[in-house]
Amino acid sequence: MRLLLVEDDDHVAAALSAVLARHGFQVVHARSGEEALQALLPDPDGVVPPFGVVLLDLGLPDQDGFEVCGKIRKRTGTPVIMVTARADVRSRIHGLNLGADDYVVKPYDTGELLARIHAVSRRHVFEESEGAAAEEVLTLGSVQIELPTRRVTVGGDAVQLTRKEFDLLALLAQRPGVVFRREQIISEVWRTSWEGTGRTLEVHVASLRAKLAMPALIETVRGVGYRLVAPAG
């Protein structure tokens, strides 16, 4: 996922960018409100750069982050998470009323920030695809995942999966290339916490690789989690 980080402090931006990169994000750094708005402008062909999320600091050198958020909302529906030291309730309410999807106060726990990024991105993807028939079937090379019927085929041949195997595959397949943290997968597929469930996840990943006869389809990102690598063709 491409992510727009709007932060005027280069040291903070560098540290956060490194963490985000380790979790599979491609980070574009803007140091001012104007740079952020320029990054969201369409190119000469009218194509708007795709960003999954905007992380927006409020203390920018050229204009207030609240003002920038309002301008972003007029240009795009990309989720915006305000990341700021302003902890007062009035600022939180004002930011959310301007159209921010979430509000995170510095200093923050990195794991929580990552969870919030995934949460707002997930809601955005769901809202865009809700009711769209094209989103009911996910196609990844020779793999087809029919969400309404919970049917999976490889090269046209049906593959029998358990309920949890299907849920795991469908979760990863909805955002190919994005790294899902182990804790996030456990929370969404098993509806429980990470403790004591890690081995269950590993077993299900191994089973999926074997049943689909595609060991490279689900990639292990050491120390983080898993991501789905869309097969060629």
Automatic annotation (TrEMBL):
The keyword Phosphoprotein applies. It comes from the Bacteria. This is Sensory transduction protein RegX3. Keywords: DNA-binding, Phosphoprotein, Transcription, Transcription regulation. The keyword Transcription applies. Residues 135-230 bind DNA. InterPro entries: CheY-like_superfamily (IPR011006), OmpR/PhoB-type_DNA-bd (IPR001867), Sig_transdc_resp-reg_receiver (IPR001789), WalR-like (IPR039420), WH-like_DNA-bd_sf (IPR036388). Gene3D superfamilies: 3.40.50.2300, 6.10.250.690, Winged helix-like DNA-binding domain superfamily/Winged helix DNA-binding domain. SUPFAM superfamilies: CheY-like (SSF52172). Residues 135-230 form the OmpR/PhoB-type domain. Residues 2-121 form the Response regulatory domain. The lineage of its organism: Bacteria, Bacillati, Actinomycetota, Actinomycetes, Kitasatosporales. Pfam families: Response_reg, Trans_reg_C. The modification 4-aspartylphosphate is found at residue 57. It comes from Streptomyces physcomitrii.
